[in-house]
Structures are given as structure tokens and as C-alpha cells.
Amino acid sequence: MEDGEEEAGEDAAPSTAAKMQRARSGRPRGAASLVALVALVALVLAGCGEDRRPALDGGPVDAGLDAAPPDAAPPDGGPRPDAGPPLCGAPLDVVFVIDTSTSMEAELLEVRTGIRRIWNAARALTLDTRFGLVVFVDDVVAVAGCTPFGSVEALEAELDRWWAFTSTNRQPNGGAASNTDCPENSLDALHAAATRCTWREGATRLIVHATDDTFAEPPALLSEAIPVQHGYAEVLEALTSRELRLGSFAAPGIGEFCGVAMTENVGVGWHEPYMGMPALPVATGGRAWNVRDVRDGELDMADAINELIADEYCTLY
Q1: What is the pTM of this model?
Q2: Which of 133, 221, 218 is nearest to 177 (CA)?
Q3: Which one has a higher pLDDT value, 177 or 174?
Q4: What gap in Å lies between CA 135 and CA 190, rounded to an integer?
Q5: What is the pLDDT of residues 107-143, one digit of tens each?
Q6: What is the dihedral of CA 299, 179, 216, 94, to 10 degrees?
Q7: 8 A C-beta contact, residue 250 and residue 212
Q8: How many angstroms separate the CA atoms of 100 and 21, rounded?
Q9: Beta pairing, strands 226-227 & 221-222
């Protein structure tokens, strides 16, 4: 055999040593590499499985290394997804019903001072916000027929006018009678707000009421001249049937000296039930504040009103 043929034979057939090595290993080297690769893939998949959680449909959802907590702020530093006011889209209707008798000068000034904060806070919830105004002593005036104010400046100007009016001890409708007794006509004022103001379909509807004395029912004459038109039960029905929430700044307990006397309990109807009927703020799902806390500097009216509006906006009646 020539040298060339001998070399060709060695290339064509494995050597005896190679055969023995394969016999000892039991499998070719290519198969071993494949098994190792399969094992590595299995380990990787097992490791990933530890970071998986059920999806809403029962399938797996990969948490991933880049997943962030559900309440984490976005990478640009903006607000968290759950931050900000509710976005229900409902309109917001607010009517102020304010006692403008002489003793209410400080409270009316509080409303006037804080009205821009109230306006802005309400419009932060929804730009579709309307404000109206009803004032009363013994008689009642729905300002401009309770037409909503077109601007905060217009509302501020109207509150300025009524704040100055508190020094006159007169009736808001311009009549000749002066205010000569303790009760004020909250009931007719609230009834006017409920029935004469425009309350829009689907709106969150709020009345903010402020007084420091009690009320009277028909057939009472206030200041011996002005008849009360609507009773407590009628006002309660007018409020609840229209889904109006009442937030009332009113005094509890014995009344303060009003110039002629002191009322035994000015809190009934506001802080306490009246004649077996629930207090109006309770019956309407609103709230009652102590108006004396405002006078003592312990309660900010604008803050309280803003909290009421924020809490009640977009909630079921």
C-alpha cells in the first residue's frame, strides 16, 4: 500500500483510540452539547417563573425586572395615576343662603374673604360649576332671581354689598320693617333656594347656609310684620325631593342676646332634631358646623365649605 492510500484510510475511518473514548462516554460530543443547552434553558425558565403572577384572566403576567409598584410615580416625576380630583364629569351647583342680620357681619365677611378660594376649589373639581345666592333676615331675597354668577368678581361684589347691609338692621327686600326679634327666616330662605334656584339634572347640588339664631314656622309673624310661609316639614321635603345637601353654619344650645331676648335653644333643626324630625343637615346627608367657632377663629369657613364640596362631589345622594 502506498503512502497516499494509507493517509486516506486514516481520514476515512476513526482510530481505535477514538472508538474507545466514544464507548466510555456513551454518546457523541454533539449530543452532550445539546443536552447542556436544554438544561440551561430549563433553568432560565424556572427562574422566570418565580417572578410571574396570575393575570386577571387567569393567565401568567410577567412582572419583569422593569415593573414598578402600581402606585409609583411615572419616570417623569409627574403625579401618580391615582392622584387628583374625581373625574366623574358631573356639574356642580352651589347656592349660598346667608342670614344678613346685624349679628352676622363677621360671618358674611368670612364668606366674602374666602369666596375666591371656594370658587377656585370648586372649579378644580369641574369647570361646569355654578354659584347662586339667597339672603334673608325676616324676609327673603333670591339675588338676581338666583341666576348663577358669571364670574367670581361679580359674586364678590354682591357679597360686599350684603356685608355692608348688615349694619342697617333692615330687611333685605327694602321694606320698612326693621329686625326687632331673635328668630330669622331660614325656612323660607331654604325653601326659596330649593324651589327658585336652577338645579341641573345630574349635578351635585349643595346649599351652604349660615345663621346664628333660630327660625319660626307659620303662622308666626317675624318682627310683628312678616309672615313665615313654609314650615319645617315642607322645607325638609323640598330639600330631599330635589337631592339637595345642606351644609349649615349654625349655633348649638342657648342663643346669644339678640337685642331683645335670648332663644332657649338655637340648635334645633341644625344640630338637633326638631319636633321628631331629623336635623336638616342630617336628613340631607350634609353637615353642621358651629358658627361660634368661626367667630372664635377656630374654624375657617372657606376650608370647611371646600371640604364639604370635595367630599360630596360625585357621590350618590
Answers
A1: 0.74
A2: 221
A3: 174
A4: 10
A5: 999 999 999 999 999 999 999 999 999 999 999 999 9
A6: -50
A7: yes
A8: 109
A9: antiparallel
Q: Is 109 helix (H, G, I), strand (E, B) or coil?
A: helix
Spatial distance between the Cα atoms of 313 and 204, rounded to a whole number of angstroms = 6
Residue 61 amino acid letter: V
Q: Any idea of the CA torsion for 164, 166, 172, 176, to the nearest 10 degrees?
A: -110
For residue 111, give the C-alpha cell.
364668606
Which DSSP state fits 92?
E
Cα 117 to chain centroid distance, Å, stands at: 15
- Between CA 77 and CA 79 the distance in angstroms is 7
Q: Please report which residue ranges of 13-151 form alpha helices under DSSP H.
A: 16-25, 29-49, 105-125
Question: Phi, psi at residue 48, to the nearest 5°?
Answer: -65, -35
pLDDT tens digits along 55-77? 333 333 333 333 334 344 444 44
75: cis peptide before it, omega within 30°?
Answer: no
What is the grid cell recorded at 27?
A: 454518546
pLDDT at 2 (0 to 100): 41
User: Which helix H or strand E contains 208, and what residues bound it?
Assistant: strand 204-210
Residue 259 pLDDT: 76
All structural domains of the chain:
21-70 (no CATH), 92-312 (3.40.50.410)
Q: Is residue 289 within 8 Å of 208, Cβ to Cβ?
A: no
pLDDT at residue 18 above 80? no
The rounded distance, in Å, linking the Cα atoms of 246 and 284 is 6
Sign of the alpha-carbon dihedral angle for 233, 173, 162, 295: negative
**Is residue 245 a contact partner of residue 205, using CB atoms and an 8 Å limit?**
yes
Q: What is the pLDDT of residues 177-227, one digit of tens each?
A: 899 999 999 999 999 999 999 999 999 999 999 999 999 999 999 999 999
Q: Which residues contact 18 (CB under 8 A, 6 or more apart)?
A: none
| Grid coordinates given for 76 | 417623569
